[in-house]
Amino acid sequence: MLSEAMLACAGVINRMGSIAAGSTVSDYHDSEQQRQISVSATLMHLEWLNKKFNLIDCPGYADFMGESLGALRVSDFALITVHANHGVGVGTDAAWKYATQNGIPKMIVVNAFDKEETDFEKTLAQIREHFGERVFPLTLPVNPGPGFNQVLDVPRSELITFAGDRSGKYTEAAASGPWADRAKALHSQLIEFIAESDDALMEKFFAQGGLSEEEMRAGLHAAIQKQVFTPLFVTSAENNIGVARLMDFIAKYGSSPADRPKVTGQDPDGKEVEVALTDPDPVLYIFKTMSEAQFGELSFFRVYSGSIKFGTELTNTSRRGTEKIGQIYILNGKTRTSVPSLNAGDLGAVVKLKDTHTGDTLCGGKRAVILPRVEYPKPNIHAALKSSVKGEEDKIASGLAALHHEDPTFLYMVDAELRQTIVSAQGELHLEVIADRLRKRFNVHVELVEPRVRYRETIKGRGESKYRHKKQTGGAGQFAEVWMRIEPKPRDTGVEFTQSLTGQNVDRVFVPSVEKGVMKACEEGILAGYRVVDVKIDFYDGKMHPVDSKDIAFQIAGYFGFKECFNAARPCLLEPIHLVEIRIPEDCMGKVMGDLSSRRGKIQGMDMDGGFQVIRAHVPAKELYRYSSTLRSLTGGRGVHTESFSHYEEMPRDAEAKVIEESKKAKAQQEAE
């Protein structure tokens, strides 16, 4: 709504849309209108006080943080929005962290002061608790709640009254009474911050006992760039209150490409090089790729140096290919305006590049530089895709490849062992959006189901078998007798096949045949259809027939002999254990620990990180299906986790029996089909 109000103030749109009606400029995709949240980063632009603003409206929901990462990578500063009722969310913390990592200044907007029960002081205290005492309000709400239309402008010591008709128009009057006192106290604090940002100003501050209005204004921009303080503004975007004043401030004191005129990249040999805003040769970074129906693929980019126009030949230094720039667009949501060229510092989109993906660098002239790619967080939730229509495998595969090309924050793999396509994403909603896009855009019939778990089978004791395979049918028969022993090996040492034959009972030519049969049984599994691991097999004797013994006979004898042997050696199932690292607020410890123990989790260690507790635990993979959703609900959306495979461990008897039973049922069903 904030970007909508900005567009309305600048006259880009005649009237503001609403989230409920799905009519805002930035949330124009079906999935956004259906869920009434941003899913995709949307590019917009406007002009205010003779300055061009390039706005990228990013999702705040943690599942779609990848969109924000790409946008922050090409932004000059981050305008972080906090809801007056809800306070700082997980997305707020993440946006702050990533903006800091990108070395760009932050400003904060606390929105929705027209809602009931807003408490400015409480919200400000919470924000300072998260982001430090130097978060400083430049506007304050005078009459918060329904009917909110007045703010105190601290730098000017003025009361600003907005028309309240969503036009963004306002009148000014000098602050008086308690508001004047409040403005004066904050004003002197602001001057101290500004003096602190510059040694010359600091000297003047001490010599004069303060700074003049001109000196203060001159120093304000530098103080924000150095993040001596973080400006905070209050608004009601839905009613367009306080937004025009925020835009005034951004136009005068916000960041522009000139504030960070150089970026560092690497040449093709890996040497560090700088790209300057004033360099003549064009350098572009692709921060987002999106496919639109009836339009094709759009590549969103920032120009870091030089200028580009229709027909410009560029080299994709990331992939060593060439690209010809087609039509160049600047965007306002789904509205595209064709432009002849774009210069350094600007953002735009180009259509139908041959082989250019998110994170690639395009260079022109003699330049050959690769700008650093965005590092996306690892996915933490997994599901399998189940198709209800046969023969759609190729369509699903090409659909997933196209969607991953647009959104690198989700991964997919075809798991040959489990015979499933596994999709991994940033959260449950992210998974649903991917499945949705796959269904609608590629016309496939898929649903998300629980992925199978890679159990393993092994033994706890020794076993022996003497297996005879004999087949007499008209013509040539088959005969083979295999004697073998089996014993357990240490964990993670694999399957070892040996032979200790003596005498002439079995020709050595049949040893590979027996090994082949044994390995086939290991691959297929015996207890529940999972791979056999950590066993040593010794083929020590047997019998053969001068005519009927052949390769296939010894393969079959090896296969069934091994199964008999395995079942005699106290077989058991192993389950994969994951190392889970969970970051949660202190007050959620009890709930999260209780939940972990219900999942058979074993705590490995705990640390403090700021106001957060970090728990490390070993948890069986089976117990982690959709864990991120549970964690979010236990922590009010504030908990995050990562998981990685750690080791295999023997399963408890009751859990093992359940898995064996399930596998028998599944096998019976397959045979029936």
Q: What's the arrangement of secondary structure elements?
A:
Elements: H1 2-9, H2 30-35, E1 42-48, E2 51-57, H3 65-73, E3 78-83, H4 90-101, E4 106-111, H5 120-131, E5 135-137, E6 139-141, E7 150-153, E8 158-162, E9 170-174, H6 177-196, H7 199-208, H8 213-225, E10 230-234, H9 243-253, E11 262-266, E12 272-276, E13 283-292, E14 296-305, E15 307-309, E16 313-316, E17 321-324, E18 328-332, E19 335-339, E20 341-343, E21 347-351, E22 361-363, E23 381-387, H10 393-406, E24 411-415, E25 420-425, H11 428-442, E26 446-449, E27 456-459, E28 463-471, E29 478-488, E30 495-499, H12 511-524, E31 535-543, H13 551-567, E32 571-585, H14 589-598, E33 602-609, E34 612-620, H15 627-634, E35 640-650, H16 653-672
Parallel strand pairs: 3-4, 4-10, 5-10, 30-31
Antiparallel strand pairs: 1-2, 6-7, 7-8, 8-9, 11-12, 13-14, 13-22, 14-21, 15-20, 16-17, 16-22, 18-19, 18-21, 23-25, 23-26, 24-25, 27-32, 28-29, 29-31, 32-34, 32-35, 33-34
Q: What's a quick, concise take on this entry?
A:
This protein is α+β, with helices and mostly antiparallel strands. The strands form 9 sheets. The protein has an 8-stranded antiparallel beta sheet, covered by helices on one side.
Written overview of the protein:
With 673 residues, the chain is α+β, with helices and mostly antiparallel strands. It has 5 domains: 2-252, Rossmann fold (3-Layer(aba) Sandwich); 262-363, Elongation Factor Tu (Ef-tu), domain 3 (Beta Barrel); 382-449, Alpha-Beta Plaits; 457-569, Ribosomal Protein S5, domain 2, CATH 3.30.230.10; 576-655, Alpha-Beta Plaits (2-Layer Sandwich). It contains 16 helices and 35 strands. The strands form 9 sheets. An 8-stranded antiparallel beta sheet has the order 17-16-22-13-14-21-18-19, covered by helices on one side. Strands 27, 32, 33, 34 and 35 form a 5-stranded antiparallel beta sheet that branches. Helix 6 (177-196) crosses helix 8. The two termini are 53 Å apart. The model has no long low-confidence stretch (mean pLDDT 90).
